[in-house]
Automatic annotation (TrEMBL):
Pathway: Phospholipid metabolism; phosphatidylglycerol biosynthesis; phosphatidylglycerol from CDP-diacylglycerol: step 2/2
Keyword Transmembrane helix listed: yes
Swiss-Prot/TrEMBL cofactor(s): Mg(2+)
Entry's EC annotation: 3.1.3.27
Biological-process GO terms, alphabetical: phosphatidylglycerol biosynthetic process; phospholipid catabolic process
Family matches, as Pfam families: PgpA
Native species: Alteromonas genovensis
Domain of life (superkingdom): Bacteria
Name of the protein in question: Phosphatidylglycerophosphatase A
Record-annotated membrane-spanning stretches: 15-34, 40-68, 89-113, 142-165
UniProt GO molecular function: metal ion binding; phosphatidylglycerophosphatase activity
Sorted UniProt keywords: Cell inner membrane, Cell membrane, Hydrolase, Lipid degradation, Lipid metabolism, Magnesium, Membrane, Metal-binding, Phospholipid degradation, Phospholipid metabolism, Transmembrane, Transmembrane helix
């Protein structure tokens, strides 16, 4: 069955290539985790950006992601196939809004984002079940990123030493 879905996408198609997280979503186990990991080099590339530029990149990744994920899901003929991981990449960018990117925040932010994305607490789970198309695929991960971001801000504010743990 997995091969049937994969036969409907091509890594030569730039929309599919991006939606599948540069191929990271094709990993047969934990594709969401591997998609989130694929965001790390992109985050590191954006490390020197000003806050407004980082916000702009995050917004572009999020808005473009609606199209990328929706089109790829349509092509696969599956609502939200696990291999579509652009939503995780955009969610990781949301996680680090207004935060310094250090090894410590990167690790903690990654863990927090994965927890919210996997556990899907309210309202993430509701959105995941009720919204369809590219918007539905993207929105639950953007909310998971926002929740991880809020938790990371609390950690950094209450325990500034978090910035230098590793």
């Amino acid at each position: 069955m997995q091969a049937e879905f994969r036969a409907r996408v091509s890594m030569k198609n730039p929309v599919h290539f991006l939606a599948l997280g540069f191929g990271s979503g094709l990993v047969p186990v934990m594709p969401g985790t591997f998609g989130s990991l694929a965001a790390i080099p992109l985050l590191l590339l954006c490390m020197g950006l000003s806050t407004p530029s980082f916000i702009a990149v995050t917004l572009i990744a999020s808005v473009v992601g609606i199209y990328l994920c929706g089109k790829t899901a349509d092509d696969m003929q599956v609502h939200d196939h696990g291999s579509i991981v652009w939503d995780e990449i955009a969610g990781m960018f949301v996680t680090f809004l207004f935060l310094p990117l250090t090894a410590s925040t990167l690790v903690l932010g990654f863990v927090l984002f994965r927890l919210f994305d996997i556990l899907k607490p309210w309202p993430i789970g509701v959105i995941d079940k009720r919204l369809h198309g590219g918007t539905g695929i993207m929105l639950d991960d953007l909310l998971a990123g926002a929740m991880a971001c809020a938790c990371l801000h609390i950690c950094v504010t209450l325990y500034p030493a978090v910035l230098t743990l590793f």
